[in-house]
Structures are given as C-alpha cells and as structure tokens.
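Blinded run. Sample ID left blank on purpose so nobody reads anything into the name before looking at the predicted structure. Input follows.
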Amino acid sequence: NLSPCRFYLHPELSKDLVGTHAPGAHSLVAVSVGYFLEDFVDMLCNQKLHQSWELLFHHSVVIVCFGIAVLFHQYVGFALVALLVEINSIFLHLRQILLMANLVHTTCYRLNSIINLGTYVVFRIATLAWMTRWLFLNRQNVPPAAYAVGTVGMAIMTPMNIILFYRLLRSDFFK
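Blinded prediction complete.
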C-alpha cells in the first residue's frame, strides 16, 4: 500500500481530498478496486458463504466507494486515506497464515498479535474515526449523493471493524 507515500510526496492531497490527486493516485485506487473485485470473486468461488459473508460485504462497500472515486475522478484523496486501513491487513493476513501453520504458541505469533493490535488501532480505528469526522465537518461541501454513500460506507465499516477488534482481543489476549 503506497498511500502514506502519496501524502508525503504530494502534501496538497491532505488539503483537498475531493478534487486533487497526484499522478498515480488515481491508478492506485483503480488497482485497489481491481484487487477487491478479484478477492471478492475468489471468495465467492472458493469459500463457503457463512465463512466469508462479512468480508464479501466489506469488499462490496469498498468496491462501490472506490469505484465512484475512480469513475468520477473525485474523492481520490479520501480513498487514499481509506487505503491506510490496509496497512493493518499485512498483520491480519500474517496472523491467518500463522494460525493455519499451527504456530499459535510461538513468539512470532505473539509478536504479530501485539503489532496487529497496535496497527489495528492506528490504521483502522483511528483512520475510520478521522474519515467519519472529516465527512461530518465537510458535509456542506459534499454533494448529497456522495455524502450519503460516504455516510453509509462509514456506518457499515466502523462497526464491522470494532467487532473484529473485539474478536481479535478476545481470541489473542483474553483466552
């Protein structure tokens, strides 16, 4: 995920999350839509619905929101902020790999659990809180349809991430 680099190299993105985007930023969001589409189809084909419905729902929301940014060349900066959430995915995926390898009782798993929780708070919970705040503070500058999509997206993603955080805490720290 290159979104932090985009903000560092193009600070104007942080001032205008609606109409400004650096060269390559639009492509990054478009590639992300492709990734979420591919992962969505892969889950549909290779997993049972009761195992993956939450992630399928998550991917659907992301595909719609990022798709709007890609199609209309608007809110690309906002989508880049949302991609910060995916930094934590590295540690969530590593956790799954360690679980599948039956390495739960190892130092590596324990260290990953701590880093996973830390990055979860910083890159998921704090980022989603900041995005919700930004959307609320800028509601007068956001067209009603875009505001509705953003509000619904945040209303779906925030509780999903809080529930997942609780599950991670319970599973890795309060067994």
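Unblinding after everyone has recorded impressions. The radius of gyration is 17 Å.
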